[in-house]
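My current task is to audit a protein record that another person submitted. What it holds is a sequence and that sequence's fold in token form. Thanks in advance; the entry in question is below.
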Amino acid sequence: MKLLKKLYSIHSKSGKEQKMIKFLLWWLRNNVPGAKVDIDKEIGNIYVTKGVSDTYPCLVSHIDQVQTIHSRDFQAIETKDIIFGYSPKNKRLEGLGADDKNGVWICLKCLMKYENIKVSFFVGEEVGCVGSSKANMDFFKDVRFVIQCDRRGSSDLIASICSTEIASKEFIEATGHEQFGYHLEEGMMTDVLTLKENGLAVSCINLSCGYYDPHSDHEFTVKRDLLNCLSFVEHIIENCTKVYPHEYDYKMGGFYGFDDYFYEYYDEIYELLQTYPDLTFGEVEAAYQQHNPKLDRTELKSTYEMVKADLDFWKKEEEYYAKHY
């Protein structure tokens, strides 16, 4: 757990991931010396290729976190079962950023273990998949599948996001997910969806990786759940040795096209509906048209519905944790 706690100690808020980038580049030089490491200096994404192969298993994760509080004396406190963040001086819990440093940790562990593997680390996932939306798609031309470990809990295998499939049935069956306690669930926005929208033509999945109460200062990791996820990922790498094609259904997935319009209005509408949750789309539209009468109504409605769905999701998350923890 030493490496994991080191990742937790590095504060990497969205847009300020430089310390994490610097650490990862140092770690890769010292622990995977033969790997080819490329960084998009303009964006900050890191691409790692280890070994020479016709095809590669591929893992991705994001290096940014939501939490803004991270004291100088921050500590990742490890108990027998869990890890949580704490500031002794301020006597308060502080978020680990386990979403998605748990995924980063799994990527690093697999880079050390396997001779042939590809890994990508993305910036800005928490603010609209900024890094993956500008990913170098040539990097993924020779991958068999893509796995992201960026889901709370211990048992969710995400192969469909907003009713749009991102993996083939053949790949899902080949993973052997039942023996690791995983079952299919519907997912939310993350980098693998954006890669599919960018034209990635192989199967992708997102997995629960042992963090709970994400995006809060009460976030914690259950070690056995994280280790089970690592074992599951290793099982897939070792047993799914062929390419698993999958074509993304753009008609079904168009709702999640993160264009400039989405970025411009999403945060505003999110804040508005947090304060006034009962606002109808018509009321929001009327407010915007006062200043922009030529506003694209279809795009605005898509953004409004996206915000409503996200707010509903986090409300259910809060209710879940209030009931179970």
Summary: Confidence is low (pLDDT under 50) at residues 251-263. The chain has eleven helices and 14 strands. Residues 259-324 form one domain. The two ends are 24 Å apart (CA to CA).
